[in-house]
Amino acid sequence: MLQVTSIRKQFQNTLAVDDISFQVNPGDIYGFLGPNGAGKTTTIRMLMGIIKPDSGDITLEGKDINSVPRQKFGYLPEERGLYQKEKLGDVLKYLGLLKGLTPAEVGATVQHWLQRFELEAYAQRNIRELSKGNQQKVQFMATLIHDPQLIILDEPFTGLDPINQMLLKEIIQELSAKGASILFSTHQMDQVERLCNRICLIDQGRIIVEGDINDVKARHHGRNVDILFSGSLSKSDLAEYMTRVELGKNRLRGGLTSDSQTFLKWISDQVEIRSYSVTPPSLEEIFIAEVQASKEGRAA
Amino acid sequence: MTYQIFKWEFIRRLKSKLFLFTAIIIPLFILGAMILPSVLMTGESSEKTSIGIIDETGRIADTYIQKLAANYRLKDGEPEFDVQVSEDEDKLRSLLLDKEIDAFLIFPDSILDTGRGELYVRSASNFKTSDALRRTLNKVILNMRLSQYHLDPAIVNQITQRVNLNTFQVSSAGETNASNELVDFFIPFIAMMILYMTILFSAQILLRSVIEERSSRMIEILLSTVTPGQLMRGKILGLGALGLVQLFFYLAVGFIVALYQGLDTIKIGFILSMMLFFILGFIFYSGIFAALGSIFDSEQEAQQISGMISLVMVVPIVLATFFITNPTALATRILTFVPPITPFLIVLRAGTSSIEIWEQVVAFIVMILSIWGVLKISGKIFHMSILLYGKRITLPEIIRWVRS
Question: Do residues A262 and A134 both lie within one domain?
Answer without folding.
Answer: no
